[in-house]
Amino acid sequence: MSEAQMNENKQGKLEKPESEIKQMWSALIQNKAAVVGMVIIGFLIFIALFGKWLMPYDPNYADLSVNKQPPSVAHWFGTDEQGRDIFSRVIDGTRVSLVVGLTAVSFALCIGTVLGAIAGYKGGKIDTFIMRLMDIMMSIPNILLAITFMAALGRGIDKAVIAIGLVTTPEYARIVRGSIMAIKDSEYVQAAKVIGNSDTKIIFKHILPNVLSPIIVRATLGISTAVLETAALGFLGLGVQPPYAEWGDMLGRARVFIFEAPYMLIFPGIAITLTVMAFNLLGDGLRDAFDPKARS
Amino acid sequence: MLLEVKNVKTEFKMKKGMVKAVNDVSFQCEKGEILAIVGESGSGKSVTSLSIMGLLARNAKVTEGEILFKGENLLDKSASEMRAIRGNQISMIFQEPMTSLNPVLRIGDQLTESIILHMKLSKQEAMQRAVEMLELVGIPSPSQRVKDYPHQMSGGMRQRVMIAMALACNPELLIADEPTTALDVTIQAQILDIIYRLREKLGMAVLLITHDLGVVAEAADRVVVMYCGKVVEEAKVEELFEKPLHPYTMGLLASIPRADEDKEKLYMIKGMVPNPMNMPAGCAFSDRCEKCMSICKEQEPAIREKDGRKVRCHLYTNDLEVIH
Amino acid sequence: MAVNNEVLLEINHLSKHFTVEKNFFGKPTKVLKAVDDVSFKIYKQEAFGLVGESGCGKTTIGKMLANVYAPTSGEIIYNGVDLGKLSQKERRAYCKDIQLVFQDPYASLNPRMTIGDIIAEPIHINKLLPAHEIEKRVLYLLNCVGLASHQRNRYPHEFSGGQRQRVGIARALAVEPKLIVCDEPVSALDVSIQAQVLNLLVDLKEEFGLTYLFIAHGLNVVKHISDRVGVMYLGKLQELAEKHELYDHPLHPYTKALLSSTPVIDPKLKRNKERILLKGDVPSPINPPQGCRFSTRCYVGKLEACDKQCPEIIDVTGNKHYVACHKQVQ
């Protein structure tokens, strides 16, 4: 019996554990860049939810009499070639970008985690098969592969989600597999086996929670990639179908007017940059917050 | 006197403030002597050796004291002057022979690097010297092995290469930081034997940093015992093992299982090493000491010294007589 | 420490081979024989020590007993049942009888579970107690290993190495095991903490009537805690005897070298001591020497058989002192 430890707390009260999430949160809000990212994301979510009531005009209402107007008091961001209000369209596009970004990443995350977990824990031939398939997918440039999927699936926002999701799956599969391989033979996983856990329980209770942090960080950074890819597909005319507003699509249409009406590109461009930057800042912040060594 | 460490204080800058890793440490090391510094983790023994080498981490600094090497204060030296001394007059071997060698360079190239740099030899002469050094540390067919990469050698072999590298420029002082901790017992015996033999042959002094009292008993001439950044006892090795004075040293010696005795129970030093951010007032060992008196909790004991034997404890008078 | 005559566990010709390299078709081309044809018995309530240097296979034996690895061949007979022949599901039922204390207290506790949950988990899994009694048991176990109940909800990283090792011991005790495999339980700890943990292990053994398989590389530690000691080298058991017999009258040249290499905590003795310094390093277990495993480093005049034939381990003195050496047979 060691007295020193007993003396630490003479009242013998059961200490409340300081939860992991609490510690992470306090580390996260100390990181200024991450806070900036979170504020921007909060702002974007607000816009996506309540944008409807903030828009001065119907984003799809074309009034050719006011087309290609530079920014003014009436049209803060100007109007496009069909006379639609760019400010309203940028607001409307927020929803599409966020929804596509989030769903595409969740889709990729689910498939990637399952594939990576199977490959990493089972090993052997299953591992070789899954990972070679992922390697093949990764060897093709993302956007090219996404276009191929779109060509097979057809146009539309739902198809864009699937295409972007599929294209980014290998990254998650790789991260999950790598993290699982790294701790699969660790002593506490062996310890879990010694006390009689089944394989499924070992994976879900002892392995996955411990590899969650790199996956979440990657997913946060992945949202920005997905937003960019949605924009790229939109730019190529493969994303959202007219007349709905989407930032990439807006850029694509404005391309021809780049010298005549640069504001048509600038504002959706700023929106994309801001979103991508916000998720990157948050992702970097999370990476530090998840690392207990960086935290203390 | 080859090395004199005088009242050295090394502090680390942490988020929560300054931490004194080494606190007022003094000792001396003579030519050709093997001086052991023993202590547990957190005792400051490794930080002491890094302070001497000038290899402290960026957030650490020697804030007080002097480190005299052949009469010159190493703390006053510039970075480039220290580089000329390191690897030449003072060299060091580390605990982990696996990571201390560059994996992409051949053994021979790593050995000749510092020989060419410090001894101003030609490449061929340096290679000649490298082969001699490998032979000296007992590596079979050394002229073949210089072409090997580190991964082709076992842990014991690599530690020998490290020793060869450290000794290549005839240093006057070798700092060995836990040189055998990562090795098996039979290999440990070989390495200690090499260090012991080379000391006799080359006349260098060795500063042996270790936590293992067995290694100390086997190899050292004199011992400095450290606890929580301070020297608590210093003695000749025979004296220390025969009659330890500080309660911490007594406790350590009694708590080791020995092959030559049978005991049901080992002696236990109760509790744990205190957190450096939250040291007890007075003597740092007072919380764990069986002979703790009221003064121990109030006043930090000063070093008492007699005939080169030192102890930092309130139990003794200035002549090292026990106070009753 | 009276040694019982009832056998608790017996291993017969136990081997474990790991595949290091496979060819294109998945056939093993390089095999590491971590444990090669080892047999011994562990009696009820004894402490059986296993010593040897890194790579000798001692840890692998421990982990086979605790169901971390499945044996390649051979038998593990526990209470008359051959555990190797059971399916994974049936095998798990014996987990509660044989538990393992790991070497590295930093790596063997799940960093995301509180220490109380870590100790409660084996009780849950093996359905040993109704849910409302588990908490009481967890607190009791914490006290048994010298931790305070209020620390129940802390995470492993808040503890020192010695305290974590206590948690690991409490987890092993939770299922009321008969046999605990202690795999180098103190080698990662500071000297003053080692004594605390060793004394705890001795106390618990008395209190719960446990049997230990105590694995370590330090001969002093093994002698302190064990009743009988086995010496391993390169996957083979080389010598096995009661501890005083083994330490006072070692027969195998490797055991002699090991004993003579172990530092003596007495600077006066070292100068008179005749030291056997082995030449070279332990050969790779992927390609071990033909014949006696120790033949490449043996310093005693060689016989013809040493290079050709692996010696059997036999009782040479008739005093239950087993040794695997050709020279002892003559």
Structure characteristics:
heterotrimer, A: 296 residues, mainly alpha, MetI-like fold, 12 helices, elongated, C: 330 residues, alpha/beta, Rossmann fold, 8-stranded mixed beta sheet, 4-stranded antiparallel beta sheet, 32% helix, 23% strand
What is this structure's SSE topology?
The complex is a heterotrimer of chains A (296), B (324) and C (330).
Chain A: H1 3-7, H2 20-30, H3 32-54, H4 86-122, H5 124-139, H6 142-153, H7 157-184, H8 187-194, H9 199-235, H10 247-254, H11 263-290, H12 292-295
Chain B: E1 3-14, E2 17-29, E3 34-38, H1 45-53, E4 60-69, E5 72-73, H2 79-85, E6 90-93, H3 107-119, H4 123-136, H5 142-145, H6 155-167, E7 173-177, H7 185-202, E8 205-210, H8 213-219, E9 222-227, E10 230-236, H9 237-242, H10 247-255, H11 294-298, E11 304-306, E12 309-311
Helix pairs in contact in B: 3-4, 4-6, 6-7
Chain C: E1 7-22, E2 28-43, E3 47-51, H1 58-65, E4 73-78, E5 81-82, H2 88-92, E6 98-101, H3 115-125, H4 131-144, H5 161-173, E7 179-183, H6 191-208, E8 211-216, H7 219-225, E9 228-233, E10 236-242, H8 243-248, H9 253-261, H10 267-272, H11 304-308, E11 314-315, E12 322-323, H12 326-329
Parallel strand pairs in C: 3-8, 3-9, 6-7, 7-8
Antiparallel strand pairs in C: 1-2, 1-4, 4-5, 9-10, 10-12, 11-12
Helix pairs in contact in C: 3-4, 3-5, 4-5, 5-6
